[in-house]
Amino acid sequence: MTDEERMFECIPNFSEGRRPEVLEALRRAAEVPGVRVLGLDADPDHNRAVMTLVGPRGSLLTSVFATIRQALETIDLTRHEGVHPRMGAVDVVPFVPLQGSSEAEAIEMARELGRRVGDELQVPVYFYELAATRPERRNLADVRRGQFEALSVRMAADPPDCGPPEPHPTAGAVAIGARRPLIAFNVYLNTGSMAVARRVAKAVRGSSGGLVGVKALAMDTRNHGRVQVSMNLVDYRTTPLPRALELVREEARQLGVLVVQTELVGFMPFDAVEDAMRYYLQLPGFSRHRVLEVAIKESGKEWGDRE
Amino acid sequence: MTDEERMFECIPNFSEGRRPEVLEALRRAAEVPGVRVLGLDADPDHNRAVMTLVGPRGSLLTSVFATIRQALETIDLTRHEGVHPRMGAVDVVPFVPLQGSSEAEAIEMARELGRRVGDELQVPVYFYELAATRPERRNLADVRRGQFEALSVRMAADPPDCGPPEPHPTAGAVAIGARRPLIAFNVYLNTGSMAVARRVAKAVRGSSGGLVGVKALAMDTRNHGRVQVSMNLVDYRTTPLPRALELVREEARQLGVLVVQTELVGFMPFDAVEDAMRYYLQLPGFSRHRVLEVAIKESGKEWGDRE
Fold first, then answer.
1. Which of the following is catalytic: B46, B80, B84, B289?
2. Residues A268 and A184: beta-carbon distance below 8 Å
3. In chain B, what residues touch A293 (CB-CB under 8 Å)?
4. pLDDT per residue as tens digits for the range A72-101
5. B295 interfacial to chain A (CB closer than 8 Å)
6. CA distance A242 to A251
7. How far is CA B301 from CA A37, A52, B248, in A?
8. What's the whole-model pTM score?
9. CA-to-CA distance for A127 and A108, rounded, in angstroms?
10. Interface confidence (ipTM) of the complex
11. Do residue A64 and residue A102 come from a single domain?
12. Domain harbouring A252, CATH code
């Protein structure tokens, strides 16, 4: 398998979810030959956008670097408000190996991007998760603790992996890392009470007695009169989406609250669709190969096309 | 769009679900260049197999005819036992238009196959559903009433559309038709009581007060100590799979019985997967385009490949 065939996903998270012209400029900056911009999910309450890029190493690094440079010109964290925790204009940049590529390669990409962002753009970089240089930086929530507002104090005690030892004045710092695929999934509850959202998030989150492989935060989305439990399922084959959602539902119900609807941020791997279909339909025989359109496409690769 | 690009699905149902060598011969007979044998689902309790074929008009007709001819050599209905109603060795042969093809064309294919089966194989043919020649033959259950055992008497009063006026001695008669795509879905209940299965089937079936677009039969699968509610969802966009399953669940629960698991016969269109994911995850934003692997494939068709 050549370098051009080994594909990676990169999902830069920007602290901007409201200004369409800024988002459009980020998307344009990412459009590099060979790289596919699968999506750009903007959330006005979070004031944050999640871009999903797929490509081979070289062109993907070019694309991500260009969109980070573009973000620095238009996003000013000193004026940023939003309910999602953040420490940078470009807040977090994970690389994920796809089929054919390895975690080691994704870590290398994170390190290379980090050096360029530190040197050329003068933004301090913390490596996190699989790319972390010390154990206490593996967990993104720890890396981001105190957020942008506390960054000067924190950086003095805990210098970054790359770039200047002080926060960038408008862009803060960025966490760059490598990780396995995850599912970012938000659940809306029919209450405006953040106390309820916090109790539910605490109950499902692995770090406080809930499900292993689930990270959860309560988020206030006051405009809609509904609070949100925002989850990352970081090991969705071991702790699948239905188990997390049904636990949220049950913990909310105990507090007299219902799930109104849910929301997917970015993309969901087909494995997770299979898990959900098997679970809810009690259909152990389900797989992507039982989906008519998929089966037709797949059969085309085999003897069906010998005509 | 050329003739070779307009694709159809054909799903012949054979009254054989036990002898592997017979099933294998049916599959081999269907293998005609240009036709894809997507699957062959055999059910030993039903003693029935469902083959799913996809191809353009000409080669698909060749393939289906060959497999029907093969079935006549190996399946003898005078010795057939199984819980699924049937009137023929090849019991029912529906054609379904796929993207790019029309119902009118599917009806024409059914008629052409019917004439050949009647003339060349001397098996009587009843056209059903969209291909029916009179209203009382639209519904397959009506066409098949009395099954193989009552066929002589019935045919005397109600002659077939093609072929001889008497049943084929070992192959009975065949229903050939055209229809829209459907989902064939079986639900197993944790009881051996056929009375329960019948009450549940009656409650969900459209013809007896249940859901429009749902056909349902109680089936005895004694070997497993579990009865089955076997459903066809004939208009799954209007009456989606989750609604049918949850009604089965609720009607069974009223009788103190639980759903143990379910089973898909053949394939499920992607539309139905989307409906189920939206329903159970309360995720209105879900679509196939949010599945990572699908999004990557689709993006390859656009500017991502301009490299």
1. B84
2. no
3. 269-270
4. 999 999 998 888 889 999 999 999 999 789
5. yes
6. 14
7. 13, 17, 42
8. 0.88
9. 11
10. 0.88
11. yes
12. 3.30.70.670
